[in-house]
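Structure tokens
________________
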Amino acid sequence: MAGEILNYTPGNGRMYKEDSSVINVANAIEASRGWAGMVVVSDTAKHTAAADTVYSTIKFLSDSVVTEIVADASSPITGTLDGLAFGANFALFGKFASVQLASGSAILYIGGI
């Protein structure tokens, strides 16, 4: 038992979650910070995150109006941001499946689920 516990310590990055699954803390931090890349958006098309990814941060580059932002199914985000205006340099953090702007521009940082 003691050897098994040592396999899941902060020293090696593996930790137990409340649901008894195991995660690597470093990987989780990278996924939440959008270190998997980014997409620059300055059009009105709907941008959907690739399979097994989400947009972890939406950073507005200019004053922007959102047509639709859809939270990922695994995210506890409720409510709607549709139709809201956001100022330049404002950032939203969460797990977003898709983003569509009515106007403006943004960087969509890619993270893991």
About this structure: The first strand starts at residue 14 and ends at 16. The chain has two domains: 1-32, 34-112.
